[in-house]
Structure formats: C-alpha cells, structure tokens
Amino acid sequence: MRFADTPHRRFNPLTGEWVLVSPHRLQRPWQGQREDVARESRPAHDPGCYLCPGNTRAGGVRNPDYAGTFVFDNDFPALLPEGAAEQSEESGLLIARTERGICRVVCFSPRHDLSLAGLDLSAIRGLVDTWTDEFRALAARDFVRYVQIFENKGEMMGCSNPHPHGQIWATETVPDEPAREDACQREHFARRGRTLIGEVLELECAHGERVVCANHSWVAWVPFWAKWPFETLLAPRRAVADMTLLDGPERDGLADILSRLTRCYDALFACLFPYTMGFHQAPTDGKAHPHWHLHAHFYPPLLRSATVRKFMVGFEMLATPQRDLTPEAAAGMLRARL
Ligand code: H2U
Ligand code: ZN
User: Fold this and answer.
1) Has residue 318 been placed in a domain?
2) Domain-located, residue 33
3) What CATH number should be reported for the domain holding residue 182?
4) Is the C or the N end of the chain the one with fewer CB within 10 Å?
5) What is the tens place of the pLDDT at every residue in 147-202?
6) Domain span including residue 230
7) Is residue 207 annotated as a catalytic residue, yes or no?
C-alpha cells in the first residue's frame, strides 16, 4: 500500500481502535510554518504562584523551601481515599459505583520559569525518582489498583499554572484506557510470549522512519497508529511492567529521552509546546503482569504552528479519529528539529 497518497485506516493494537489517515489532503509536504510567538518571560520565583517555594496554597498551607521536586496532596482532589462502598442500579441501565482515590500534585522544580525542556538532566533524573517513589507508595495502599502519572502542559491543554508540575491520580479501579491496553497486551503476550510494545519497538527501530530519538535504554517514536499530529510513544527497550523495575541506567535513559523529546517539541514551532503526557503502567492490584510493558504517551494538540491546533470534532468525535499528516512525515519533521 502506498501510505503517502492512499486514504487508509490504521489499527492500534494497544487499544483495538482504528484511525483514518487521509494523506492526499495535504497537497504538498509542509515544513511547519514558524511564527514569532512572543514568549512571555517569567520570573524564577513568582510570589503569586501557589506552587513556588515558600508560598501559601489554597487552604493556607505554606510550601516548604524545596530545592528539587515537591509533592503534596491536591487541595481540590477529584477523588477521596475514604468512604463506604455503595452502588446503585436501575433496570441494569443507570449504574453508579462509589470510587475512592488519592490525588497528588508534583512540582518538577522550584524554578517558576522552567519547563521539562529547560531542566537539566540531573533535575529530570530527580523527577524520575520522585515519580517512582510516588508510584511505589501509592501502589502499596491496599485499595489502590491503578496509578496514573501525568502532566498537562500549556493553557491550550487547560493547565492552570505555568510553574512546571504534573499530577498523579491513584484509583480504586483500573480506568478505561489502561484497561483496554491491559486486555490487548495480555492477549498479545498469551499468543506470542513477548510484550506487544517490545515487538512494536523492535519493528520501529528496524524501519527507523517513525523513530524520533533513542538512547541505550529508551526509544521515542510516532506510533504507526497515532491520532494526534505529533503524538509520540516512549518505551524502554527492556520490558518492565512499571517504573519501580527500571534499573539506574534505564532511569538515566528515561531522563535523557524526556529532555531530548521535549526540547525537540519546543523547537518544532518555536514555542512552549503544549501537550498532555503520562505513563501507562501495570495495574497495582497485586497480581502478576508479565504482559505489561511500561510506556509514556505524549499527546500534543498542535497541527501546523504554535497557534493552529487539531480539533477532534465532527467525524472524529462521532466516528473515528482522522489525520492528514502521516506519522512518517510527522516523525521526519520532529527529527529535523533535534
Ligand atoms: P493543573 O494546572 O494541571 O490543573 O494542576 C494544578 C492542580 O493544583 C489542580 O489540580 C491543584 C489544583 O486542584 N491546586 C492545589 O492543590 N492547591 C492550590 O492552592 C491551587 C491548585
Ligand atoms: Zn511558581
């Protein structure tokens, strides 16, 4: 099949979903037009920021004078750890269940003016350790069956504060997206005796055209089945179910690839590149998960400049996601900015 000029569907084996690719709609390959977007200059410390060291948050708690990362319980948590289990059901159609959980906020750095792309490697490596410690501690809570680590970056993604930070939500049930990935990875592992992501990673390294960057232990690529124009998938070369199983060099490798990828993103349209990113890891339900392969997804909304974004509306909202720019072209554009 001639991917570059034939409308086609691509299958996402990690979720079982399809994406429509319409490359013929792009008359010519475009470079990604660069506009001059004024970067607001931010102070290293903002007295009005509720995440900066020494400042007071909602509810009156004062942040410590932290030097690396700083983690606290979200003052406006979406979930609460306590509460009796209840359920309600009407005719098997209107169904509800109580859900317990824990919501944490992770400050990546005391510096108000930096983002992941601007942090030095040792700071990102410290963040990897913080994420790992948080994952381990939350996973150990008896009712927690899944831990979602994520970052929402940029106003376009609804992020409320430019101070570099992310969130962690630990839940009593495995949410839908990781549950779909769990089922697909389980089925693949039972059939082939290898992790799905491990096999895809090898294929991608052999092809090379969708790989953005790689190091000794991690690879970042635009998935064959990407929905978002510049979506990427990051995975360790060695199959491990969660972060706690990464060794020292693999944690260094994760810090390195996060740094390279986020700088490449910022360079693409010469802006502070917005995205939602997060890690998918095995459920923390105490069972064995040999089929799980830790990975991270970056879902950036931008399409052709710092201000022109992709909307998942119309056909995409009602039927299936669609893209014009091929994943191969997107990977090439990203590699050009490395
Ligand atoms: P986002 O900008 O990614 O939404 O993250 C900010 C989080 O910080 C948000 O979930 C919390 C909000 O509830 N928050 C506090 O915990 N304390 C505050 O004083 C303000 C905001
Ligand atoms: Zn701040």
Assistant:
1) yes
2) no
3) 3.30.428.10
4) N
5) 999 999 999 998 889 999 999 999 999 999 999 999 999 999 999 999 999 999 99
6) 42-335
7) no
